[in-house]
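Recall that a protein's primary structure is simply its ordered list of amino acids. Everything else, from secondary elements to tertiary packing, is in principle encoded there. The following example makes that idea concrete.
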Amino acid sequence: MEILLITIIVLAIILMIILFIYWRFQSIFSTPSTGKISDGIIAITNSFVSSFIYTKESDIIMIDTGFSKKGMKSALNELNISPNEISNVFLTHSDGDHTGGISLFNSANIYFGKDTKIKNSENFMFLDDSEVVKVGNIKIQSIATPGHRAGHTSYLIDDKYLFTGDLIRLKDNEAKPFIKIISSDSKKMEESIEKLARIKGIKMLFTAHTGYTGEFSDAMEKWNN
């Protein structure tokens, strides 16, 4: 009887911890609905994480592939986009909620940051810091932004759209480091945000879990001091 009581108490504590973590994450995450954000930019939100499609003329690229293959496939169907139309996929890092739909894009070039650790690495391409890839008339610059993960990479597209994955969370239009307890190195996260804050000419900043902002300078103000 005593063992049963202890077991029930332990399970109750574990459940309370899980519920607290869920509540805490829900209070932090704020993702846009799947659909058009601005000309040429579409958000695809799968569960609690957003991926993004960027189009220019006839070229289509993607940043991250979402939480699941099923969810990504369903979203693309709703948008009337075939996975085969997406020629290049840029991953901010290798966590499962960002790579869940990766197998849909067998015909695409798939990129990670140079220091990313991932299985079957021979199937992917790895970009150095500040390396530029051209896809038609789209310019994609990789920016090494370690902290959440060692190989975490942000992408600057056409010199004005910045996709930051799990580096930044937005709260009241202020850029803050992503959740520290699930990140590898909080100090490096802060250094990476400072690095991005020095970039000039950014029109919009996008995060994977907390939406986006068109007020880059205001959001990054504290990181420029």
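The chain has a mean pLDDT of 90. The first strand starts at residue 35 and ends at 38.
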